[in-house]
Every structure is written in structure tokens, then in C-alpha cells.
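Handoff note, outgoing to incoming analyst
You'll be picking up this chain. Sequence as last confirmed:
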Amino acid sequence: MVKMMATADRKEREKEQRKNAIIDAAEKLFFSRGFDNVSMEELAKEVELGKGTLYLYFKNKDALFFAIILRKIDELHEIFRECADLKLSGREKSKLMGKRYFEFVHENKEYYQMVCTNGPKLFRKLENEELHIFMEHMKEDLLLHHGVFREGMADGTVRNDIDPLELAFFMALMSNSIVCLDPGWKTVLEAEGISYHQFVKDFLLFIGNAIEKRPDAD
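Most recent structure output, in case you need it:
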């Protein structure tokens, strides 16, 4: 019995390792060649699997794209959690989370370029179960930011005239809009001498001032 359980555990680990290897390969090919230019057949060759075997792990390219997104969301969530666990004021935590978010975006440019380009099409095609999984992941991040804003309201460093959950939504929506800023707007900014890097820096300053509680706000 023990031997059978050990064998089952080993097979499960091997299956998980192969699944991660497939996601790694898909990520590499999607980034280098573009999502639309990669076929499942090419992915199967990259990981040295039969096409039929690949479909046992992922039903199509969209499912692979979705797996990449969830993995990145989990990576970012761990960064946010580390910030939230620090012994800082609520305002300082939220400030650090914003900084770390845009650092993560900078370190994963290819991923965000792919998500901003192909993500909207994918999300329109998500099935109910996939959409539920995605929303649960996003909800975790929102609740983490919500908790940090509540801490800030309690310690007097974050304004308390707006619901903390609304603040979390504002941050998420505006930050995502900045990350997926239309190239046309970037061109307009650069024509006026404002680099994208400066724009992000000023956004964090702007949103920080909007969130922070002023001494004369009571």
C-alpha cells in the first residue's frame, strides 16, 4: 500500500513537472514569436511530446496562455503579500506595493506586452470555470490591498472618506490602464518630452498624494 502511494505521488510530481515544462516552453515561444504565430504542433515539438499528449495537459493555446497568466498573477501576489506583512504603516505598505508592481512589470515586459495585446481577446473567450478561477485570483489581490488600506485608515496614514475596497479597485484599474497604455498615448507623451518611465513615476506620486491622509483632513 505504501509503495503504491509512493508511486502515485511520484507520478503526480512528474506530471506537474511536465506541465510546468510545457508552460515554460509556451511562454518562451509566445514571447519570442508572438502568440498568434505559434501552433500547438510547434509547442509539442519544443517539449518533445506528441501532439495528442500535449492536448492531455492543455486543450488549446488559450488554455496555455491562461496558465501563464495565472502563474504570473501568483508570483505578483507573493510580492504583494511580502509587502503587506512588513511592519510599516498602511500608507508605506501601499506605496511599496505600487513600486514593486511597476518593477515587476518592468522585469516582465514581454509578458505584459503579450497580455495587453492578446489578453482582451482571451478574456472574452474564457469559459465560466476559467473566468471564476481568474476572478478568484484577482479577488485575492484586491482583498490584500483592501486590508492594507484599512490598516492605513486605522493608523491615520490613509484617507478614510472612501471605502477601502473602492480604493483597491481604483488602484487596480488605474495601474492596469497605465501598464497597457495605448502606444499612441506614449507617442504623445514622448513628443512633449515625457518618457514612459517618468510617467509611471509621476503616476505613483499622484496616486500616493490622492490616497494619503492630510493632517488637516479631519
